[in-house]
Write a structure and sequence with these properties.
- Two copies of one chain form a homodimer.
- With 209 residues, chain A is mostly helical.
- In chain A, helix 1 crosses helix 4, helix 1 crosses helix 7 and helix 6 runs antiparallel to helix 10.
- Chain A is built from ten helices and no strands.
- At the A-B interface, helix 7, helix 8, helix 9 and helix 10 of A face helix 7, helix 8, helix 9 and helix 10 of B.
- The structure holds a DNA duplex (30 and 30 nucleotides).
Chain lengths: 209, 209
DNA sequence: TCGACAACTGACCGCCGGGTCATTAACTAG
DNA sequence: CTAGTTAATGACCCGGCGGTCAGTTGTCGA
């Protein structure tokens, strides 16, 4: 550590390396407390070098979202495209996938947190996220529900118009983990099970009106 | 505005005035971007005066939480105490109350946002909130569910162990409003209706297993 | 009327971190 | 080998804001 290693010129690899370092730093410190200097150090690079590839801290964050979040949803979309079984099982699969990829994954959860925290500061990013992720995800859910209703598997109802309610408890789980996990650990597995059971069966007993 | 108004000495009123000014400032700018100077100005006071009553920015925020959030939950608790009708209706009432007080109210939604954003920085605050609000709220829900199951109104299930899943979609609504409302307005009324319908009836058709 | 006390003020301090840029060193073509 | 190009460096600059405190002014009791 004492002697400075010789400089290396690796224009092509730098962006990805810096991005990874930034993900680590952001995940550990949050956006506001992340220091560019620290990102640089993690990437084995000088501060100035970071600015060779990204012009602001915000831009780094945007790159992370584009690079790490979209794939999760693309994956889910692909899954539902070629699904053979019941729609209820597909819904279970997708939501479970979502918990694994977004809630239990530190990197991605932190991205979510930053999106919430700094939402206003990045209006274009919020737009991007909305367009690419939320609209797409909602469309997928609508399709899933439509098929389920058609086949008689699901009942029709208001949820078909607001399909995101089905996924909403996952967000709560993410927030709990971000905010209160040090006070009381969330049992993610149990929460997920309760979530799935609830949206599928509801709470009323069969005999009720 | 040009001439300085004469100083006023009002030791008793200051804290509340400053708190209100802080709520406004935080709601408008968020915690990180809120300036003490600006809070002081809103309160019609000099910066130094703020520090006469609160020693740090954090402390101001904590005071806000104590002062503004607890009442909402106390209210709900009181409501459920003396409820006469069905548990399903009580649940509807409570959740509706919650949307009105927390999601549609700018001040309180901002408090929630700050809690999420700055959660780590305020571990004691997270503890306080957890202890006073979440644990209490959960206990109330458990009791409600217990009664409902006893009377045959509700089925038993995993949700009884994780009662917060019932309320979770409200958090999603809050976050949507905080982050994406400028891109696409949330129809809160419809969301609430879908939420209630979903948790009560679920998604499966009656004929399903 | 006049201390003396406490509320109030706002100029100032110090730190911190994002972003710059003159300099240096690695690579490359000829 | 050399000159030109460009990646990489890190000392420095600078603006902003949280927090301080010596000084000022209102208030009240004697």
């Amino acid at each position: 550590m004492v002697k400075g290693k010789p400089r290396e010129r690796r224009k092509d690899e730098r962006p990805a390396e810096i991005l990874q370092a930034a993900v680590d730093e952001f995940a550990e410190k949050g956006f506001a407390n992340a220091k560019i200097q620290s990102i640089a150090t993690r990437a084995g690079v000088a501060k100035g070098t970071v600015y060779l590839y990204y012009t602001t801290k915000e831009e780094i964050f945007e790159a992370i979202v584009r690079d790490r979040i979209q794939p999760v949803f693309a994956m889910a979309a692909a899954m539902s495209q070629q699904w053979e079984g019941s729609q209820a099982d597909l819904l279970r699969q997708i939501i479970t996938h979502f918990y694994g990829q977004m809630i239990e994954n530190d990197e991605r959860r932190m991205i979510l947190k930053t999106l919430i925290s700094e939402g206003d500061r990045f209006s274009e990013l919020a737009e991007f996220y909305h367009r690419e992720v939320l609209v797409g995800g909602r469309k997928m859910l609508r399709e899933l529900i439509r098929k389920g209703i058609e086949s008689g598997e699901f009942r029709d109802g208001l949820y078909a118009k607001e399909p995101m309610v089905l996924v909403a408890p996952a967000i709560h789980a993410a927030i709990w983990k971000m905010t209160f996990d040090s006070v009381e650990k969330l049992n993610t597995r149990r929460w997920l099970a309760a979530h799935l059971e609830m949206i599928l069966q509801g709470v009323l007993s069969q005999s009720s009106s």
